[in-house]
Amino acid sequence: MSTFNRYMRGMSNGGLATGEALTNDQLLKAVPSIFATEAHESRSDRFVPVPTIDVLDGLRKEGFDAFFAQQARTRIAGKAEFTKHMMRLRHRSITNAEGEAFEIVLVNANDGTSSYQMIPGYFRFVCANGLMVGDTFNEVKVRHSGNATSEVIEGAFTVLDDAEDITEQVQAFKGITVSDAERTILAEAAHQLRFPAAHKEDGKQAPVAAQRLLTTRRTDDRASDLWTAFNVVQENTLKGGLSGRSRNAEGRTRRQRTRAVGGIDQNKALNRALWALTERMAELKAT
């Protein structure tokens, strides 16, 4: 089994990826909320549903394909067909020689829990990492009102306009050498984002120390550039699977592993915050 498939098999919240462009049949089985054509019954008449499948079909005609999809879980009967969902789309013409590709990350819900959102992203095939970029690039949000579907498709090309700039920024990250101390700073900042309770007074102990977020999983990740350091920290923060020990209130220790970040909102927030941290590190190194 490939590294990609081992990673994706562990995705939660209905995550679906096969390494190939996803078909509608595959999406319908795993992420049914993509196919909602009406709003959930809790919405008012002013709420305009945006069928994600219509947008996806439109974007396919423009060269985009979905390679990952997931939806949020719900305990409310009949709501699974309307919940928040996320897809990652790549344009067939944009993949570089290093096995990296620009993406559009698309988020929607027809139950009122999310506007339609499109966020630029970047995908690194070697470790199946899906990265979302920070706030310096275009993010498109479309309300569920008016002619929302056409606005969404237009917004996809607004996000796509950033592809060249983001690719250039990745190349800039690759050209910046970071010291062990600087890598530790990234790891400590990521640790605070991932385990905020552990950094409060009398907070719960995190399952791993910040330094564990610098654990390399493959030989190529031992490079000293900022891009590699970011990817190592990002993968360990989001993917989980790191072994550690924690101490309970009675002082007893127990072994445990960090959990993958499966929630759509937390995944998005952590991804973008980590990218912003890396941008800041690059700026400091340039001064």
In this structure, how is the largest beta sheet organized? 6 strands, antiparallel
Oligomeric state of the chains?
A: single chain
Order of helices and strands: HHHEEEEEEHHHHEEH
Molecular shape? globular
Number of domains: 2
Alpha-carbon Rg, integer: 20 Å
Low-confidence stretches: 1-14
State mean pLDDT (0 to 100 scale).
81
Derived structural class: alpha+beta
The helix fraction, in percent, is 25-40%
Ends distance: 45 Å
Number of helices: 8
Strand content: 15-25%
Features:
disordered N terminus, globular, 287 residues, 17% strand, six-stranded antiparallel sheet, 8 helices, two-stranded antiparallel ribbon, alpha+beta
Task: Offer a concise description of the structure.
The chain has 287 residues and is α+β, with helices and mostly antiparallel strands.
Describe the structure.
Helix content is 35%, strand content 17%. It has 2 domains: 3-164, no CATH class; 175-286, no CATH class. With 287 residues, the chain is of the alpha+beta class. Mean pLDDT is 81; it is low at 1-14. The protein is globular. The N and C termini lie far apart (45 Å). Strands 1, 2, 3, 4, 5 and 6 form a 6-stranded antiparallel β-sheet that branches. Strands 7-8 form a two-stranded antiparallel sheet.
